[in-house]
Amino acid sequence: MLRARADGSGMVFNFGEMTVTRCSLALGNGIAGIACIGGRDKRHAAVAAVFDAMMLCPDGSQWHALAREAVLAAEAASNKHVAARAAKARATEVAFSMSVAEQPK
């Protein structure tokens, strides 16, 4: 059940239900990863749990470094994609300005 607030500070109400998929697993070194994602995509939940476990490995371990590099690379690619879409949208921007004397009557 999803809970919400009408204006961000009002009383809480039940907004609706949502399907979630949860995955819990352990790496070969015994470190457990847990993920809970919206929807029914089991593979997405499993990948998220693997990344969770890898990030929980001690700093300096190869698993932590691999997970960190993958997450940062994905973030950089996402930022590049968002910037490209914003630039494309900005290219179509039209500026409207009228002085008081030019306004239609």
Mind explaining what this structure looks like?
By secondary structure, the protein is an alpha+beta fold. The chain has one domain (2-91). The protein contains 2 helices and 4 strands. The strands form 2 sheets. The chain has a two-stranded antiparallel ribbon. The model has no long low-confidence stretch (mean pLDDT 88).
Could you give the topology of this structure?
Layout: E1 2-5, E2 12-16, E3 20-26, E4 32-38, H1 42-56, H2 62-91
Antiparallel strand pairs: 1-2, 3-4
According to DSSP, the number of beta strands is 4
- How many helices? The count is 2
Largest beta sheet: what is the strand line-up? 1-2
Largest sheet: 2 strands, antiparallel
| Termini separation | 54 Å
Q: Which residues sit in consecutive blocks of at least 5 with pLDDT less than 50?
A: none
Indicate the mean pLDDT: 88
The whole-angstrom Rg is 23 Å
Give the helix/strand class.
Answer: alpha+beta
Helicity, in percent?
40-55%
Which percent band covers the strand fraction?
15-25%
- How would you sum up the global shape? flat
Q: Structurally, how many domains make up the residues?
A: 1
Q: Write down the secondary-structure element order.
A: EEEEHH
